[in-house]
Amino acid sequence: MGMLATVMNALAMQAALERTGLESRVQSAIPMSTVCESYIRRRAIRHLEKGRVVIFAAGTGNPFFTTDTAAALRAAEMNCNALLKGTKVDGVYSADPVKVPDAIRYDWLSYHDVLARELKVMDASAVSLSRENKIPIVVFSINDRGALAAVLKGEGRATVIKERA
Predict the structure, then answer these.
(1) Could you tell me which of 80, 84, 153 has the C-alpha nearest to residue 121?
(2) How many C-beta neighbours within 10 Å does residue 45 have?
(3) According to the model, what pLDDT value does residue 165 have?
């Protein structure tokens, strides 16, 4: 059901993007030809070359792999410059800031820091896959209006996870 929910969210995102004039495509790891394209790497690359936004849905299409791992996998396959992780809070914290008010917020962390401290921003597979492919992870709040646009401009409040500077 979770994989299907990501397809619904992807279709909603596509509609929102197209309302602003951005041409986009949804590709699903689970074939659903009546609502979106099936994930085909070469087709996704071609859409990107044509300037379209490609939204990947349904994770990897396999159980036991999170959508975070799927995002890291697709980022590696598409040779992306970064992986953006929208979440409920404005970055990575030492503990859940909702439950622990004095939790420490980090501006940046290494992949190793995230894994060694067992920070719960993403599953370990996603962080490791990003590390292996040298893809920085940018964690920002989806609840802050304009946060995505700010992150895309290299501004705003976020945590960057990457190799040590």
Answers:
(1) 84
(2) 14
(3) 59
At residue 131, φ and ψ (nearest 5 deg) are -60, -50
Which token pair is 151?
């992150």
| Span 45-86, pLDDT tens digits | 999 999 999 999 999 999 999 999 999 999 999 999 999 999
Of 64, 93, 109, the last residue of a domain is: 64
Considering the domain architecture, whether residues 90 and 55 belong to the same structural domain is answered as no
User: With a threshold of 0.90, does the pTM exceed it?
Assistant: yes
**The total number of residues written for the chain in this structure:** 165
Tell me how far apart the terminal alpha carbons of the chain are, to the nearest angstrom.
40
Q: Residue 107 CB: number of other CB atoms within 10 A?
A: 10
- On whether the CB atoms of residues 45 and 57 are closer than 8 A, the answer is no
